[in-house]
Design a protein that fits this description.
This protein has helices spanning 14-23, 25-35, 43-59, 69-80, 85-96, 103-119, 123-133, 143-156, 162-175, 179-195, 199-215, 219-232, 239-249, 253-260. With 261 residues, it is mainly alpha-helical.
Amino acid sequence: FASCQSSYQELPDDTVLNQLLANNPDSLATLLEEDINPFLLSDMERADYGWWLTNAHRKQNRNLINDTLIFYTLDYYKTMDSPRLLDTYLLAAEQANSSGNQLLEKRKILDKALELSQIKKDTFKVIETISRIIHTYDAGEDVHRLQELIELTKKYADNEHKIHSVLLLTRIYGRALMLDSVGKYSAIGMKMAREQNQPYLDYLFSRDYSKYLNFKGRDKEALKVLKEVEARAEVGNEIMLNYIMTWTGLNNMDSAQVYID
């Protein structure tokens, strides 16, 4: 029966696992999946195993549908108030909706993570968790809850993470269909991004601001914003959608067709 048993009865040192996760998640996943049997580990190490394996799969951009062990990890980490607990909630939320049809379950787990991050006064995790929660809402859905998240974001928007909080506010206002606020905060974000020399954020804010201008029927201004950001920053393929919307608003279908093709 020895050949059926795992060659490891305990996990490698955290330093080794951290290095593998950062530099070679494929090797980490292979090590955990092929060389270690989680059921031959202690309860604590089995919880840690779920943590490392789910993180490795996430780093590999794999669907987490088979990573159900993360819920064992979550329950165990709750009993010891692990410093990994907040991140484990986020992993569990992602796993819960890995099939794509469990948004409400994902939201429920993220709401618990948000509550805990406030208790721990972890500003960064509050903002990160809110940024994930808003994707569980369709545009215009439960505007009252979205307004609560707006106020919470403002409360926790400290100076260190302020520009990211402004971006988050822009996105929440968009979900709540509060277009004037989208315009206000995306304009503020554009200015901040340029002052801080953050071209990628400049690009994101500029796209949001151009969409706001489109919705307001100010398509000439939107076109100017798009051309200016292209001159300042490296842009992605997503900007084509902005150009299609803008040229369509200007009744210039030939120019819009260029981006459609």
